[in-house]
Write a structure and sequence with these properties.
Number of domains: 1
Radius of gyration: 21 Å
Shape: globular
Helix content: 25-40%
CATH architecture: Alpha-Beta Barrel
Order of helices and strands: HHEHHEHHEHEEEEHEHEHEHHEHHE
Strand order of the largest sheet: 1-2-3-4-8-9-10-11
Number of helices: 14
Strand content: 5-15%
């Protein structure tokens, strides 16, 4: 991006956020975190996407984080599972010069606990391990508190009730009026009268780990407690289970690959998630773990071959309709990029809130590997949603999002989610 283009997106969020939204909340003020519409997904600094050892020897992580924070992005998300990521981030955040420019209270650190490797043996949700994990994250990230800690990939630990974790169309369950006239869900153990049922040892592990995080929150080491995972039925069931047994709700949930041009079911689940006491929901992976890109899904991606091909066909259709005419950035080979690509369509769609209701608005975690990727995301956001947004650009992105959903519906994969293989190497 040119210097002029860089200046155009400089601090596009910070300048619009009211002063009250910029202030960091207290340890338990009952309010959601004032996160910017885009937050920095730092799984890219881990083993799955880049060589973290090589990254640690370059200035790329510092340049990327500085670029994001200077642009107004005010949160960064990581995990012990993204091996090397926490240490790389901590080396940047702990630098004296960095702290002078970006004081700790100006940004949020979100990390996770409970998953430490690629297979089932690498999960440890015991209270002692969770507490040790959080303290290790504090050390690596060079901070004395964490704004959010999620239990990482809860579906691998919790019980799978009525195949809630299976591949398929996981649209919100049909709502029926019960005798009291209240809405009640009837699938996947989601009936309200089942909220407190512990279905096995996996559920007991979830409750033990959540209790450990609540204890650390009470001590001021954590500001918000959450869970992360893929299958929304399991996420909702566990949110209710934790509320029932701990008599206090989760603060936040990280959902991924459920608000994209391929799967947009998150919005259907939000009312029930917020009804379980949540303050906010973060949407991650608008590219569906790299699938919605010109490169296509990585080898480790669980998407079946038919879905991968449908996405490739869609990407080629977009490119053929938009030959290179300049753009917001060059592609990975340094060639002139097409004006509209599947990445831009996916990103523009994913950056929108999954809910039209302000109180249920979602923010989006986007993975960044370089300052150029930060600039590209900010430029797309500004072009479609910012102060200088273009009606033509919004129409263009909407047009292709509709076509994408039509093509994926024809292929049988619109709003379809894959099952989680175990082990799954490289999943964010």
């Amino acid at each position: 991006m040119s210097q002029r283009g860089t200046e155009a997106v400089e601090r596009i969020f910070a300048d619009r956020m009211p002063e009250t939204a910029r202030r960091i909340g207290s340890a338990d003020d009952g309010k959601k975190l004032p996160l910017t519409p885009i937050i920095f997904g730092a799984g890219t600094f881990g083993h799955a996407y880049n060589d973290s050892r090589q990254l640690a020897e370059t200035t790329i992580p510092e340049e990327t984080i500085r670029r994001a924070f200077a642009s107004g992005i005010n949160a960064i998300d990581t995990s012990p599972y993204y091996r090397g990521s926490e240490a790389i981030i901590g080396n940047v955040l702990g630098d004296v010069n960095f702290r002078q420019q970006f004081p700790r209270h100006k940004y949020h650190i979100l990390t996770k606990a409970g998953r430490y490797g690629a297979d089932s043996s690498a999960f440890d949700y015991s209270a002692n391990r969770i507490k040790t994990s959080v303290k290790e994250s504090l050390r690596l990230l060079k901070t004395d508190y964490l704004d959010v800690v999620y239990l990482h990939d809860v579906e691998f630990v919790a019980e799978d009730v009525e195949d809630a974790n299976a591949a398929g169309l996981h649209k919100a369950p049909r709502l029926l009026l019960n005798k009291q006239g209240r809405l009640e869900e009837k699938r996947w153990g989601l009936s309200k009268d089942m909220a407190g049922i512990v279905h096995g040892d996996g559920d007991r592990s979830i409750l033990e780990a959540a209790g450990a995080l609540f204890e650390l929150k009470d001590k001021g080491l954590i500001r918000r407690v959450g869970i992360s995972g893929l299958p929304l039925p399991t996420i909702l069931r566990l949110a209710r289970l934790i509320l029932y047994h701990h008599k206090r709700p989760l603060d936040i949930v990280l959902s991924y690959a459920h608000h994209s041009i391929q799967n947009d079911t998150l919005g259907q689940w939000l009312p029930m998630l917020f009804d379980a006491g949540l303050l906010q929901v973060v949407n991650a992976s608008p590219f569906s773990m790299g699938m919605l890109t010109r490169r296509g899904a990585p080898d480790w991606h669980p998407a079946p071959a038919q879905l991968r091909q449908a996405v490739r066909d869609l990407s080629e259709e977009i490119i053929k309709s938009h030959p290179p005419k300049g753009g917001l950035a060059s592609d990975v080979q340094g060639h002139e990029a097409p004006r509209t690509t599947i990445e831009r369509v996916a990103l523009a769609y994913g950056l929108s809130s999954a809910s039209p209701l302000a109180k249920q608005a979602t923010v989006t975690a986007v993975g960044f590997s370089s300052p150029e990727e930060v600039e590209e995301a900010l430029a797309v956001y500004e072009l479609v949603y910012g102060k200088c947004s273009s009606a033509a650009a919004l129409d263009e992105m909407t047009h292709w999002a509709v076509i994408a959903q039509e093509r994926l519906t024809q292929a049988g994969f619109q709003d379809w989610i894959w099952a989680q293989p175990d082990p799954l190497i490289g999943k964010p």
